[in-house]
Amino acid sequence: MPEIKINGKKIKFEEGKTILDVCRKNNIKIPTLCYHPDLKAEGKCRQCIVEVNGKIMTSCNTQAKEGMNIITENEKIKKYRKINAALLMSRVKTKDILETEDIEELMEHDGLFENKLRNLPIDNKNPAIERNINLCINCGKCIRKCHDVQSVDAIYPAFKGIETIAATPFLCPLDQTVCTYCGQCSLVCPTGAIREKSSIRDVEKALKDEGKHVIIQTAPSMRASLGEEFGLKPGSLITGKMVTALKKLGFNRVFDTDFGADMTTYEEAHELMERIEKNKNLPMTTSCCPAWIVFMEKNYPELLNHISTCKSPQQMFGAIAKTYYAKLHNIDPKNIVVVSAMPCTAKKFECERREMRSSGFKDVDYVLTTRELGRMLKQNNINLPSLNDSEFDKPLGISSGSGAIFGTTGGVTQAVLRVIEWKMKSMDVEWEELKKVEGIRQIKLKLGDKELLLGIIYGLGNARKVMEDLKKGKCRYDFIEVMACPGGCIGGGGQPKSTDMDIVKKRSLALYRQDEKLEMRKAHENPVLKEVYDNFLGEPLSKKAHKYLHTRYFNRKK
Fold it and tell me: In this predicted structure, what is the pLDDT of residue 109?
């Protein structure tokens, strides 16, 4: 292996790695701000500078080469870092920057004053994302995430030189752009210039209203990520502790979105079998990801008939809560407030869609992201790791392992196939392939005498490639699962601030552990699901099921 010298110590390294890669592997600390492992390194913030054979260079985008003599810190490097940090931080009020440790470290430098402040309007007219570009320091992470990974291009550089910021075209509001509200930009923003629009005050107001019956549903991925907000290791399953915490906040009932996932699985499996039998509108794509739905509405409205008409688990749950559950417990649905705890910023937009009112009321009233829920618990002095476990409330807290794996890429497909296997009796599929975490996968399925091809996709950039093939008649898939975020909901825009794929994989494995330890692993085995159909909905795809559990989509292309 080639060898370099770092701070006087000889170190072997793999060819093709950057200086920053080599240093991090060897626990040599170099500060960064604009760098992110998922994004192309640009060296914009110049905090990662090092001295290489006497020359100052950025370590994030300089490849390590045999014979380099590297110094990671001396007085000259400190001086240059301080100058560049001051230029960045002069753009904003330092006291307003709250988001990351990287920023906190930069703030420790002397002389970072607010001498060039903007006064641009805050963009908060949409229900999902709030943008305060007065806090933008032009690190470029959000632009690269939106363009390079998601291929959405809702954000561009605006203005010139030190005044450059990440902005929408013509500085228009986000809801007038091609934005899908996936929130991936908020995950990488270090200053809080882009963040989820908070619903904490609305939820707190509802909890204080004695006339309201306030229930909360928790998404499957939350149980594998919420612990990170309290210092627990990624992939720590805190299901029971989370339930206890939510009861301490004062919710009347704590339910599980996994029940809604079981219902979505059941309906979607029957819809897919019907489409295959009729050879109509294939391939069918999943519909549980609201950012994916908006992406299709804004970019490929001519392909909307390929999307399953099933509502997402969140919305199915809300519709059942304000109909079946309300009647079961003799509660006026106008007094029921449904709160969702979700890993997703786009869920905030989804619950506001005008078609999500099949009960006569909003299916879901408010959505809290994982980060919001973490803040809310801390504000109420509830220390999650110290709590005892509690069970979800009945009946809508009963769910299967299929509901649990809905939160990870490939999980929806596996859940649907478990129902199809039960219905068709004769099926052969590569089960282990479904558990992998890759951007685009294809799985072969034998269904009786038919051989089908299934596509599993995460990331809107990957989805665009497949949709372009579908437009051209080149798509070979019969069924496509799409999730907008890396790894699925476990990498959602409302999750704790990390898109490190190792962390995402640990969350995914946690959901599969949850699935494997349950006796009931298939949606159709859920006894409460059976009761809802027997006593309220009738059959899958029935007229009543379509009224409450299905929806339609719109052309939003401009």
Answer: 38
The domain total for the chain is 3
Mean pLDDT of 112-140: 76
Share of the chain above pLDDT 70, in %: 94
Q: Which of 221, 287, 308, 399 is catalytic?
A: 308
Q: State the Cα angle at 125 between 121 and 129, rounded to 5°.
A: 90
Helix (H) or strand (E) segment spanning residue 532: helix 527-532
What is the model's pLDDT at position 102?
54
Q: Is residue 196 among the annotated active site residues? A: no
Question: What would the DSSP string read from start to end of 112-131?
Answer: ----S---PPPB--SSSEEE
Does position 172 have pLDDT exceeding 70, yes or no? yes
- The active-site residue, picked from 141, 145, 347, 348, is 347
Q: What are phi and psi of 205, to 5 degrees?
A: -65, -40
CA distances from 90 to 33, 106, 171, 194 (A): 15, 12, 22, 19
351 is catalytic: no
Q: Find the range with the poorest average confidence among 159-168, 207-216, 528-537.
A: 159-168
The token pair at 369 is 């992201």
Question: Is residue 108 annotated as a catalytic residue, yes or no?
Answer: no
Task: Kindly name the residue from 228, 271, 372, 421 that is annotated as catalytic.
Answer: 271
Q: Are residues 353 and 495 in the same domain?
A: yes
Q: Which of 73, 93, 110 is the last residue of a domain?
A: 73
What domain range includes position 148? 129-195
Decide if 435 is catalytic: no
pLDDT digits (tens, 9 = 90+) for 413-434: 999 999 998 988 777 777 777 7
Are residues 223 and 188 located together in one domain of the fold? Answer: no
For residue 519, indicate whether it is catalytic: no
Whether 446 has a pLDDT exceeding 90, the answer reads: no
Looking at the structure, tell me whether residues 249 and 179 fall in a common domain: no
Tokens linked to 546: 């379509």
- Told to judge if 172 belongs to the known catalytic residues of this protein, a careful annotator would answer no
Pairing relation of β-strands 9-12 and 55-58? unpaired
514 membership: H or E segment, kind and range: helix 501-516
Domain boundary among 158, 177, 195: 195
Identify which has the larger pLDDT, 318 or 16. 318
146, 189, 288, 351: the catalytic one is: 288
Mean pLDDT, the chain, as a whole number? 89
Catalytic residue among 228, 350, 421, 481: 350
Is residue 537's pLDDT more than 70? Answer: yes
Local confidence band at 118 (pLDDT 50, 70, 90 cut-offs): low
Claim to verify: residue 140 and residue 29 sit in the same structural domain? no
Mean pLDDT of 453-469: 94
Indicate if 475 belongs to the active site: no
Which of 141, 489, 506, 522 is catalytic? The answer is 489
**How far apart, in Å, do the first and last CA atoms of the chain sit?**
54
Among residues 268, 372, 481, 525, which one is catalytic?
268
Q: Domain check: are 182 and 241 in the same one? A: no
* Catalytic hit among 3, 14, 355, 516: 355
- What per-residue confidence (pLDDT) applies to 113? 32
- Is 312 one of the catalytic residues? no
